[in-house]
Each structure stands twice: as C-alpha cells, then as structure tokens.
UniProtKB/TrEMBL annotation:
EC number(s) on file: 2.1.1.297
Annotated keywords: Methyltransferase, S-adenosyl-L-methionine, Transferase
Protein name: peptide chain release factor N(5)-glutamine methyltransferase
PROSITE patterns for this protein: N6_MTASE (PS00092)
Catalytic activity line of the entry: L-glutaminyl-[peptide chain release factor] + S-adenosyl-L-methionine = N(5)-methyl-L-glutaminyl-[peptide chain release factor] + S-adenosyl-L-homocysteine + H(+)
InterPro entries given in the database record: DNA_methylase_N6_adenine_CS (IPR002052), HemK-like (IPR004556), N5-glutamine_MTase (IPR050320), PrmC_N (IPR040758), RF_methyltr_PrmC (IPR019874), SAM-dependent_MTases_sf (IPR029063), Small_mtfrase_dom (IPR007848)
Positions of the Release factor glutamine methyltransferase N-terminal domain: 6-79
Domain of life of the source: Bacteria
Record-level Gene Ontology MF annotations: nucleic acid binding; peptide chain release factor N(5)-glutamine methyltransferase activity
Methyltransferase small domain boundaries: 108-212
Length: 301
C-alpha cells in the first residue's frame, strides 16, 4: 500500500473521531509504524513509497490509529512527547507536557543567564515536576545558551513530585538525559526544608484547573491524572498559592518564582503573589495571547 493512501485514510479516521490535528497525528503514527519521523514520512509519500499491506507496519499503524481515534493522547500511543527540544517518555499516570509551558522554560533560561553573572553555581527547584519536563527543559535551555557562547554558572537541579507513578517517568527521563537532578517523591508544599533561603529560581507548572471545570477534550479529562489538573478550590488557586508561599521560604533574597496558571488566573494570581510579598510581579501571555505564567521576585524578609 502506498504511504499516501495510508496517510489519507488515517487522517480521515482521526478527523471523524474528532481529533483536533488529524493530519499531523496521522503522519506521527505512520512514522512510528515505519520507524521514521513525520517529515521523512511526507518525503517518502511524495516519492511514492509503499509498504506490504499484510506487513507489520500496516498492523502497527492500524493499532495506533484505533487507539488515537478512541481519543488516547497521541503521546501515550507513541510513548513519548517532545518538549523544549527533548524527547521525554510519557504514558498513563503522568501529565503530558504541553508546548505552552516551553515559554516558562525559555524565561527561566533568560533569568538564570542574568542571575548567574559572577556566580559559580545557581540553584533551581521544580515544584510538581511530573515527567521532569520543566527541570530538564530549563537545563537544556541553559546548555543551548552555553553552546552559543554565553558564560553561565553551573546549575544545581532539584525537583519534587508527589505521585510515585509520575516520579518514575521523571526518574527515567532524568536518567536518559544523563543530567544530575535531586528528585524527591514528596509533597512540594513542604519539601526542601533543607534548602531554605538558598534557591535562586523556583519553577512550577502546578495543578491549577478550577475545581468543577472539567476539560472538554477526552485526551485531558480521561488521561491526565486528576492530581495533575485540579488546583483544589473553585478558582483553582489553592495549591498554586500554597506552593508560592512555600517557594518564598526556599528563595534567596532576590530569587525568582515562575509559575504557570490557567488563563482565568492572569489577574488574580499576580495580585495574590503581590499580597504574599513578591515584588516585580509580571504576568506573561502565550503565543495565542492568553495569560499563561507569572513571575515574581522574593525580596527577602
Ligand atoms: C500540571 S502537572 C505538570 C507536570 C510537569 N511540571 C509538566 O509541566 O509537564 C502537575 C504535577 O504536579 C503533581 N502534584 C500535584 N500536587 C502536588 C504536590 N502537592 N506536591 C508535588 N507534586 C504535586 C501532579 O502529580 C502532576 O505531576
């Protein structure tokens, strides 16, 4: 069977199932089945490549399309997600990292570059690390800056995740990147008492969905763990605020907190950070113009 025909029929089935990006998903699934990336799938399709209709590639594609058409997240079917240039292992039991979180990661890289002037080491803590996406993404962003010739201090990386299953993914991803991360399986609202006043940057993509605001997409509602989504109050801010309060105890005077939030929290969370005592509080929008994450500096007491 020609790859073009396989791509067309997979795209059509995914569109009929209500998937939001049927064509890219079909190319990713076909690539997974034949062992190449989506760009190579399109190149081979254009050149008229074909596979045996009874062969393993077609069977693997069929399996992938059926799972995706049942609205399993593409990343669960593939077994990985691309995030900030890194391929992370994900699957049932862990939150699939989202592209919008890459903006927070880039901003963290900028801050560490400026904060690091004249320092030998800077310390970063990722609260609610899930698959390890943010801590590993920031480390990779800093490494890219280094390779581009910027002088950056050594990073000391720490992360915490409450869920054992999610933490296993983080452990695996940390191991596969070869980075050293002090990963703790614990409650981020109280962990790292041993680092009080010593952290330069706290990053967090916490659970922040308002309780009762059940996500529309089955990929999210049925597959992201509940504990990864809901912020523990009608406005979704109970857990984020507990984390922001705890972050203040960890930060050195002048240290930064970067925290992702729901697009309904672009005014409330910055205001509440101000009330907790953070200064230079700025909210950032994502590429679609929606309020996405907040930064603030802890002045010290
Ligand atoms: C929205 S997900 C984000 C995961 C990851 N940071 C990312 O961006 O892909 C939130 C994560 O926080 C974890 N979590 C929820 N409450 C927590 C707590 N009190 N302490 C530590 N982790 C927590 C969840 O298990 C989930 O992995």
């Amino acid at each position: 069977m020609e790859l073009t025909a396989l791509l067309c029929s997979a795209t059509q089935r995914l569109a009929e199932a209500g998937c939001s990006s049927p064509a890219p998903d079909a190319a990713a699934l076909l690539g997974h089945a034949v062992g190449c990336d989506p760009a190579e799938v399109h190149r081979r399709a254009l050149l008229g490549h074909a596979v045996d209709a009874d062969g393993p590639e077609v069977a693997a594609l069929e399996d992938g399309v059926a799972r995706r058409a049942a609205r399993e997240p593409l990343q669960h079917v593939l077994g990985y997600a691309w995030f900030a240039g890194a391929r992370l292992t994900v699957g049932p039991g862990v939150f699939v990292p989202r592209p919008e979180t890459e903006l927070l990661v880039e901003r963290a890289g900028e801050i560490l570059a400026s904060r690091g002037e004249g320092r030998v080491q800077v310390e970063l803590v990722d609260l609610c690390t899930g698959s390890g996406a943010v801590v590993l993404g920031v480390a990779a962003a800093v490494e890219r800056r280094r390779q581009a010739g910027e002088r950056l201090p050594e990073l000391v990386l720490r992360a915490v995740e409450i869920d054992h299953r999610a933490a296993e993914y983080a452990e695996r991803n940390i191991e596969s990147t070869g980075m050293t991360v002090d990963l703790r399986v614990s409650d981020a609202r109280v962990e790292f008492a041993d680092r009080e006043g010593q952290v330069d940057l706290v990053v967090s993509n916490p659970p922040y969905v308002p309780d009762g605001a059940v996500p529309d997409d089955p990929e999210v509602a049925d597959h992201d763990p509940e504990r990864a989504l809901y912020g523990g109050s009608p406005d979704g801010l109970a857990v984020p605020l507990q984390l922001a309060r705890h972050a203040a105890t960890l930060l050195r005077p002048g240290g930064w907190l970067l925290m992702e939030h729901d697009d309904t929290q672009g005014e409330s969370l910055p205001r509440l950070l101000g009330e907790l005592g953070y200064v230079d509080v700025v909210d950032h929008r994502d590429l679609a113009g929606r309020p996405r994450f907040v930064e603030g500096r802890w002045p010290g007491r």
